[in-house]
Write a structure and sequence with these properties.
This protein is of the alpha+beta class and about 650 residues long. The chain is about 20% helix and about 35% strand. It has twelve helices and 40 strands. Strands 28, 29, 31, 33, 37, 38, 39 and 40 form an eight-stranded mixed β-sheet that branches. Strands 11, 12, 13, 14, 15, 16 and 17 form a seven-stranded mixed β-sheet that branches. This is Cyclic di-GMP-binding protein. It comes from Alkalicaulis satelles.
Length: about 650
């Protein structure tokens, strides 16, 4: 038998040989691209093990935890990036008046990567890289959690951006790069913020208000008016609105309730079970709590300046638990130019390979005087060279191409595109599409990216707003003041539905700074008294008003051509006019004021997503969906209204 000393001296040649072979195998896999691309069997094993380590399931139901989801920021369908390259982003608010214990980014969704494609996904938050990894081929779900407590300390919001890049396999030559991969981030993705205690400032509660808001109203006409004004302001800012009574709101509050805004007196709030954060707070607005949730309450029905402040950009300075604005006037845009950046257009420098799209959504009620824009002035900056490219710019309005032209690189490209009045509605989508066409093609040519910019000088241009007709003629008619006429006996569910529909109609048809005067009046078989100023009549018809349709309860009639009864869950919207001189001699021209009549039948759907254009009648039968009776729109008002 050999001694133990001799055993210790012997070198383990066999084990060393196995180690060298293993290292050589790993090196071969890296060189061949199998391991680092995650495409070989061993690479798939390593990749999946790494994902198991980095993936985590977010814990729910933790006290003090707030979920800020993509859908809360308006991305109801989540964020999708598809093709090479592709980009997507969403901006989420953060708590500013407390130091969070932890902030996590939770991304859930599905990836679908084509076989043999090389695909990389980069995730950044406020420009800082959070993740960059190659995606394995195939279809699979993911759930990624990243700790961003230090990275987001002190930040007012978090802009989460996604960049999908890659290339198709060498043996596949195809112009369409979107076939390579798709990554879909679910609407439930977002931020988790852990706090030591409940929200403590008005601005934090307002910032974390989700895309869908519930407004709880006190009883009485004064609170009805204030609630309508508040709901209309919120709707202009992009929120979906539900209106309930205080008892329903109190019963529905849960520890994780967000998006509930109260409009009631302090006494009514106490009776409903809501407690103020600060006793004897000023009469503007303050924080209230119930069942572990914190919400903003507007406390005085006569303080319209509180509504204007809370729905303005200055709400970001409300760092205390109360706010008491005593004067606050909102000035609407009055310039002859409104920059596209005011509607969300990205005017920063962009690096593109083949194309870049800018989309601008604008509403007439957000424009100076509610007027139709005459044109869009564009200023595009393109780099000098290289040769072999043709730069094209296409302009589309509501899906119709209205202009297409070539651009010169390395020089100013300033031009104006007329916006046809007949293509515009109350809400419009303007698209600017830049296309870099390569004169010499081939799959062997590498894709290079170049900087381009839609300058901040690009703007909508206004003149007299000529060419408006039908519904598009109403915003300028309402710009100098509007009478809002309502039935005086509203109660129960009808009161709440009427408040919501009134707010939505104001958000769509009345310019932001229009002076409003509310009238609650008695009706005689659906008719109210004469009116002499521009008007919005809800569930009533002024006695001197003329409109294509006659609404009697749940019945709709149009002369002898239509008589439909037993209708339910509809909103009938129609252009109207009220004659000011009905008894004038025949040789005197009739004089009118313009108005809008809306009848909400039972649980009427939302008006916010419906398309209103140059027609005179629209029947909204589902949220955002409407039909137009042809006889009431094509022939025009003079053909369908009774003669004066």
């Amino acid at each position: 038998m050999k001694s133990s000393k001799e055993d210790r001296r012997r070198f383990p040649w066999f084990s060393a040989s196995l180690g060298v072979i293993a290292l050589a195998s790993v090196a071969t896999l890296f060189v061949s691209g199998q391991l680092n691309a995650g495409q070989g069997d061993f690479g798939l094993f390593v990749t999946r093990m790494a994902e198991r380590v980095t993936n985590a399931q977010a814990v729910i139901g933790v006290e003090g935890r707030h979920r800020i989801k993509f859908e809360d920021a308006g991305a109801d369908s989540g964020v999708v990036v598809a093709g090479f390259p592709s980009f997507g982003s969403v901006t989420l608010p953060l708590v500013r008046d407390q130091a969070p214990r932890a902030v996590r980014l939770v991304l859930t969704g599905e990836q679908d990567v084509g076989p043999d494609t090389v695909t990389a996904l980069q995730v950044t938050v406020n420009g800082r890289r959070v993740m960059e990894r190659r995606l394995t081929p195939g279809r699979r779900n993911f759930n990624w959690v990243f700790d961003l407590t230090q990275e987001l300390a002190g930040a007012p919001n978090a802009r989460v951006a996604f960049n999908l890049s890659g290339d198709l396999p060498e043996d596949l030559c195809h112009n369409e790069r979107s076939m390579g991969a798709m990554v879909s981030f679910a609407a439930q993705s977002g931020l988790e913020v852990d706090l030591e205690g409940p929200l403590s400032s008005v601005r934090d509660v307002m910032a974390l208000t989700p895309h869908r808001v519930t407004l709880a109203l006190d009883e009485g006409e004064a609170w009805f008016e204030l609630g309508v004004r508040l709901a209309a302001r919120l709707a202009r800012n992009g929120y979906q609105i539900d209106i309930v009574d205080l008892a329903t709101a109190a019963a529905d509050v849960r520890p994780d309730t967000r998006g509930l805004i109260l409009a009631a007196s302090p006494e009514a709030l106490r009776r409903a079970g809501f407690s103020p954060v600060r006793e004897r707070a000023p009469a503007g607005a303050g924080l209230y709590r119930r069942a572990g949730s914190t919400m903003v309450a507007v406390l005085d029905a006569s303080r319209f300046e509180t509504v204007d402040f809370l729905t303005s950009e200055l709400a970001a300075i409300a760092r205390a638990d109360v706010i008491d604005p005593v004067a606050f006037d909102v000035l609407g845009p009055e310039s002859a130019h409104t920059p596209l950046s005011a509607f969300g257009a990205d005017t920063s420098v962009q690096n593109i390979a083949n194309s870049r799209n800018w989309r601008v959504d604008y509403a007439l009620s957000d424009l100076p005087g509610g007027r139709l824009p005459q044109a869009v002035a564009l200023d595009l900056r393109l780099p000098e060279g290289p040769d072999g490219y043709t730069n094209l710019i296409h302009t589309l309005l509501n899906g119709e191409m209205i202009d297409s032209r070539r651009l010169q690189p390395g020089m100013e490209n300033r031009f104006t595109v007329n916006l046809p009045a007949h293509l515009q509605g109350l809400g419009n989508a303007l698209e600017i599409r830049l296309q870099r066409h390569r004169d010499v093609g081939g799959c062997a040519i590498a894709q290079q990216r170049y900087p381009v910019q839609l300058s901040a000088d690009s703007a909508l241009v206004f003149d007299q707003g000529e060419g408006a007709a039908g519904f598009t003629a109403l915003p300028p008619a309402f710009a100098n003041g509007l009478v809002v006429r309502l039935p005086g006996d509203l109660e129960g569910a009808e009161r709440l539905t009427t408040a919501r529909v009134t707010a939505e109609a104001l958000a769509r048809f009345a310019p932001r700074n229009t002076a409003l005067e509310f009238e609650f009046t008695s009706l005689d078989n659906g008719a109210s008294g004469r009116i002499t100023r521009p008007f919005l009549a809800i569930n009533n018809a002024p006695s001197n008003a003329e409109a294509p349709l006659r609404i009697i309860g749940d019945r709709v009639a149009m002369d002898s051509r239509a008589d439909v009864r037993d209708l339910t869950n509809l909103a009938l919207v129609q252009f109207a006019r009220a004659r000011l001189n009905p008894g004038a001699p025949e040789d005197e021209a009739p004089r009118y004021v313009q108005g809008l009549m809306v009848h909400a039948i039972e649980d009427a759907p939302s008006l916010l997503g419906a398309a209103f254009g140059r027609e005179f009648v629209s029947i909204v039968h589902a949220d955002g969906e409407a039909v137009v009776p042809r006889t009431a729109s094509v022939a025009g008002m003079n053909a369908v209204l009774p003669r004066g």
